[in-house]
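Practice problem: predict the structure.
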Amino acid sequence: MRLRPSMQSRCTEKRSIGTVPALQGSRQARPCPQQLLIINESSVSDMKIDKRALLGKGVFVERMTSISALMEMAKALRPVRTLYPLERFGAANDGGYLLPADLQGVGVCFSPGVGDLADFEKDILQRAGISSHLADGSVSSPPKSLNAKSFLRKYLGSHDSETHITLDSWMKSSEDLTAQADFLLQMDIEGSEYVSILATPDAQLKRFRIILLEIHDVEAWGSPAFFRIVKAFFEKILQHFVVVHNHPNNACGVVDLGGFVAPRVFELTFHRRDRVRPSGYASVFPHPLDRGNLTSTEDLVLPRNWWGPGRARQSAKVRLELQFLQQVSGVIHVGANAGQERDLYDRLGLPVLWVEAIPQLARRLRASLAGYPLQETIECLLADEDGKQYLFNVANNNGASSSIYEFALHKDVWPEVEFVGKMSLRSRTFQALVAERGLDMSRYEALVLDTQGSELLVMKGFGPLLDSMKFIWVEAADFEAYAGGCQLGQVSEYLSQRGFREDVRVEIARHPDGGRYFDVLFVRR
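Answer:
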């Protein structure tokens, strides 16, 4: 997204009522008419709504798109890994996009919705020799800094008129259409991407080797009528392309559609199917080359329900989380990372003590918890000994796979995850931390552990304080993911000796030879 000040304010505005977008429009910020109320289907029976009265007041009420349909859409847009690495083109932040390194033989780029920025078009011209056809009805000429191949002062849309043109007509007007080369499409047209793609014949769509799209109006996916358009839009593209990159726009935040969390605006990179052979799903989010569109706020991580376990497994995990968290007074979460669960904890009104070893992540999390008065962050490496020096490995997936141990079979499951740095950290036991800070342990009855192989050391460092926990949630593998790290069998044996039993386990990943990663809930007997 190439943001203007008006667009930034539109993205960050908080709304409780979803709006169906005007499908013909420009890149200019559209107003936010609050005319559509979308209700979660499960809650309709508990509400007495006079639809006729609301219609007379300009409000239309409908049941929301089902969660299962939204989850299926997210599943279809999960990025895949291919042999082509991703490269960044354009600006360092807003105006930069990730493309697969498959540009040799690409003739030109069609780029509608340019506005007054052309960092991407300049970069692909300089580095890959790809010139651009531009179209935008909101400006009278292309940016002077770019030597564009052509410029058309029209908006892209579903029909041809004095102000609009279809992608099909635009391509046919170019002499490049007769060439044998493939094309590149970069489209950021503020919601008109849906009808523009749907109006494009498949034969023309397949002329593009790579397609970059910014997807808007995700809030409106809650409307079943609009979601049918969205579904047809993606089905048309996915016939011929695969998703190789998905990155939320951090200027626009996320929206919760009845429990389905989604970025309000996000960027997709598609690669034509005949050019690639997927080798599995991507699991590093954000991608190491991703940068936030805005530098003033932390980059958004693609919500886990967009790339994590399959729908059935994830639904079971969500139900499991809600069941045990509703039975505790508070949570100690060790291995905080970016605090992805903070909104869930906040909705349940739980006091939370986050513990994170990486100083930079701990500082970011502390800043992001400014609006969460019940949650606090401690920067500390927890283990079973006080004052032991560790060489801590920092991973490239936003620190999520960082550990005191080296990788073992972890690389077979997630080959794209690498250690990109090391830092010297001194350990503390949790028992010593409580005594030093005077923590009130009566506030916490659940322990969540995600420390990449050191979970057993952390629990031993609790000493007798572990007995005050009602539930312990552990992510662990039944194979050697980290060299010397604990495995699920060792965790189960230790907790059994301490009076806990395994209640539920949910598979989250699998090794090619059969080993598995689990989220496991232990309950005090």
